[in-house]
Specification:
By secondary structure, the chain is mainly alpha-helical. The protein is built from four helices and two strands; from the N terminus they run H-E-H-H-E-H. It has a two-stranded parallel ribbon. The longest helix has 14 residues. The chain starts with 11 loop residues before the first helix and ends with a helix.
Length: about 80
């Protein structure tokens, strides 16, 4: 019996591109909210948040502990 392992490859450039597209589609007053709950659905909350910070206004999380991770990143970027 063979066991197959799943692997996810995430392109930082694709994430940036997609977030830029979202920004262009919404009005300047509209807030963009990135949902990174549950460790960014298994993609890595901190890794994804580092990429998304310049493009989003808010992060959606499922716990206080998760809320603190992107918040700390945002302050480090400033």
């Amino acid at each position: 019996m063979q066991i197959y392992k799943a692997k996810v490859l995430i392109s930082k450039e694709a994430i940036k591109h997609n977030l830029k597209i979202f920004r262009r589609l919404i009005t300047p007053k509209t807030r963009l909210f990135a949902v990174v709950k549950s460790n960014a659905y298994g993609h890595g909350l901190v890794a994804y948040s580092k990429i998304a910070i310049p493009f989003v206004d808010w992060f959606g999380v499922d716990s206080v502990r998760e809320a603190l991770a992107p918040q700390r990143l945002r302050h480090q970027e400033a």
